Amino acid sequence: MSVHAPADLHAPAAAGPAAVDAATVRATRTVAVTVPDWPLLAALDRHQRRLEAAAGEEDAPAPAPLDLAAVPVILLDQHRVTHAGAAALEAGVRPGMTRRAARAACPEALVLEADREQETALFELVAAAVDTIAAGVDVLRPGVLLMSARGPARHQGGEERLAERILDAVADLTGWDCAVGIADGPFAALLASGPGRIVHEGRSADYLAPHPIQALRSAPVGPGWGHRGQPSAARPERRLDLAETVDLLQRLGITTLGDLAALPSAAVADRFGPDVATLHLLARGQEPAPPAAHHPTQPLLAETTLETPLVRTDQAAFIARPLAEQLHAMLVERGLVCTRLRIVARTEGGEEMERTWRHDGALTVADVVDRIRWQCDGWITRARLGGPATGAITRIGLHPLQLAPAGENAPALWGSAGEAAQRASRALARAQGLAGEEAVQVPALVGGRLLADEVALVPWRSERPARREGPWPGALPRPVPATVFRDPPAVRLEDAAGRPVVVTARGLLSGAPARLLVLAPGAPALQRAGLRAGSGCQVLAHAAPVVLDERWWARDGRRGARLQLVVRGASAEEVAVLALSRAGEWTLEGLYD
């Protein structure tokens, strides 16, 4: 079976009031692959296979597949209707109905029960099909896949061609129909996947504006693009309830995403708090800043070699918890949490399989155990259901891909956000409301060779600029100075005879530094360290200079050098400083504690 992308793949490109300015930082170009009514399809597949197994035992012909348009089918979870087929909807069944009400509306309907583990395992077939077109597929939740668009689109010859290839691959390898949406940011891509659209770059805000506010119920909010829902017994902390938030916004007269996007950012954050401010950011066609990533010096890996190869799904339950606890202990020891996890398996034949899972917040031991079981079940099930054959699994490894300091995800003592943090949040929002968005700025790591380039100041609660990935030859190794000067003060470096010390073309010092003279009026940090303007400080020790050749291939390239010094300030205390030389002139980049 082959399906093709719809003819109208592109959203209107006309500029409007909600258009994103070209100068602003745009959200990540994202592909969303969704299988409509996936829980219902998975339950129907399970029911069909049971009928086939029963027919095989009785040597009866296999039953014909059920047609959702002709046969009414409803799916229940905790005695409530969550999904209904076309025939059931036509008979009057609606999601949210009780079992009794649904039965009364359509007595002849086939009633199926939801099974989250089976949905997750079966969805591996869809993920494996998309993997044949592009690598780097992340499972957001069963029924929804996310992936970056830029690399795969270049490889396939464009975004339209990429969407067509994904549609054909899923249909040919699984027999199910999927929908593909491409836009700036995961939220716009998820909504675009419904009609199967590709939203022009920079036009996500225009595309989102006319959507009803109910679309926020599927918003990928929180770290790792996970889905937030009702608090559970495993997660007792209070979290954003999307249904309640949507109802509140509707009662306030906000009926579309455009209405929400038109509200001032500071007013939304001040009135509703940071969670709704994140939804406001999504409605504007942007995406929340990812959690502060932490990259340990040694990659973390928890793996186990199985004495008995894994060939049955029930075996996964026995190996999942020890492996999850091993990873958890490694993270606790380093004060980290994981929000994005890759599960890797090796088979007896040497084949390697992997799948990445995103999550809203920190992955607990129970979360990791569930994902190991689901993924192993999916790999084994896909072969049984006619997918790519999977050999016996002999090794399983866990690779944390996205790490953050534990304190950023830990709940406060009296709730999900401490009282002090809430007061500070309200105060910052109030300051922005009075003095403008630029009045409150926070540091954001953006990457660079010089210390002043590594950090940029951005407005509080705004989208953070994309991090510039290295490598940065000549970058300062850790630990870095505790104080970095935005405007480096000018200094003079002299040898014992009073001659200026410079860095030669060969990267050597012209003389041994003996005295550091602060020329310009010193910053408060310099004065506290005893480095006052016009004062000379004795150089006690120095390192070898590190030459910096910036953009040496271009005409505007610059050459400089770094030098670490230990000097004695006016208070007779030893101070470690970092000096930077350009064109024979010295400045101070920073001070060490």
Automatic annotation (TrEMBL):
A Pfam family recorded for this sequence: IMS
InterPro entries: DNA/RNA_pol_sf, Rev_trsase/Diguanyl_cyclase, SulA_CellDiv_inhibitor, UmuC
Residue intervals of the UmuC domain: 67-193
Superkingdom of this protein's organism: Bacteria
GO biological process, one term: DNA repair
Function: Poorly processive, error-prone DNA polymerase involved in untargeted mutagenesis. Copies undamaged DNA at stalled replication forks, which arise in vivo from mismatched or misaligned primer ends. These misaligned primers can be extended by PolIV. Exhibits no 3'-5' exonuclease (proofreading) activity. May be involved in translesional synthesis, in conjunction with the beta clamp from PolIII.
Family indicated by similarity: Belongs to the DNA polymerase type-Y family.
Name of the featured protein: DNA polymerase Y family protein
